Amino acid sequence: MFKSSIFSRLSNPSLVVPVFAFLGYFALAHYWAASPYVLHQWDTFFDADANKYFEWFIQGRPDLGRVEALHPLLAQMIGWPIRLATLPLGWWSTAVMLTTRNEFALAICPFAAAFTLALQVKALALLGCSLLRQWLMALLSSLSLAMLVFGSLPEQFALSGLAVSGVLYMMAREIAGVHIPRSWIFVGGLAAVGVVMSNLVMFALLVLFLGIRRRSRLHSRYQTIVFRTAAYTGLVCATVLILAGLTTWAERVMADKEDRPIMKSGLNSLFLFKKSLVDVASQVILMPIQAMSPSQLQVVKIRDLPFPDQRSPAVLDNPAIISGSRLSPASILMTILFGAAISVGVRSWLTLSPLALVLLVALWLMYVPILWVYSGSDPFLFSLHVLPPILFLMALAPRERIWRIAQRASLLGLLASCVVQNFDNIQTMLMTVADNPLRSAQHRSGI
Hints:
The N and C termini lie far apart (67 Å). The protein is mainly alpha-helical. The strands form two sheets. A two-stranded parallel ribbon has the order 1-2. Strands 3-4 form a two-stranded antiparallel sheet. The protein contains 17 helices and four strands.
């Protein structure tokens, strides 16, 4: 009995894959932290701001006494528990307290990524996917470059990926007829929107889906469902802003910063990034594939980025990594395998499930490139926004045996291609980071 219990746990991908993924992502996080660049300058990887978020996770505030409009509760939700948990260590040793805070801050995104994997597998189990398919999708997700990078880099994208997976998990519970407590929806909405305001759209889609699914039972009209969705979304948004204002006001009073403007808006930076309609349309197709494995990583200098960091001129010659879209046999093969897997998966959803879910997920996948247009220069930044729903659409097995075999073969091929290509991608990143200290030493010694 005891042996069978151990075997069942070891064969459970919702436990095994997240545990090993957390250890791997945490090890990578330590590698990035050992570099004098990755967590201490802007835009090292894919235009991400790991230095800013790492400081937020440690300090518990974005900017003393000011509300960060785009991430209203992110610093408080992460930083405050870390500071409270490590505060008793300060009575013993300040150095130990600060080191522990750094470790907690490094562990946040690996933990979020591992939790994301667990929710994804749980969602697949609720949908009746076989154990083999759960393992396959868990490995495909955990070994994607999106998870490898943002599961180890202190940033908000791992937390947004967790929020997206949480929404899909609740949708799966609803489809499976498992009760969803209202508190989960409300508190989850507060957390998701508190991480980044753009998650409000995803929360609205969840509420809309639940309303459509329960329409016949509640005898609701579509106009009523839309009105309730708007009201509930507005309530969550207002609650987040009120909580952000209260926590910021408390900091201002305690730090005697009441003369500063309370709102720090990030909206002025949204219009820096201008892309053509063709670029946006292409990313609807390319983003999911790039999330698994970009066909090429380019190593450039900070000064060559679309918007280089002019605040620290000394870093302009440091290397940065951005995603590319080189056409190669490997990328063509991966695109074909991806197309086959997603086509069979969507066909299964349309055959076995309500159309509403597929349409709402499709709306989210079209919305994410709009985020890229206004919020970043590298589309890979938003890979964890699209990866969970894409895997969700791929996962459902068709009834016909021939289609199941075709889908399984394409998923296995996609996993193999992902592993091979991402081995090269991660190696490029590791070598670039490893070269940095040497370049820095050469620069200081005048070589």
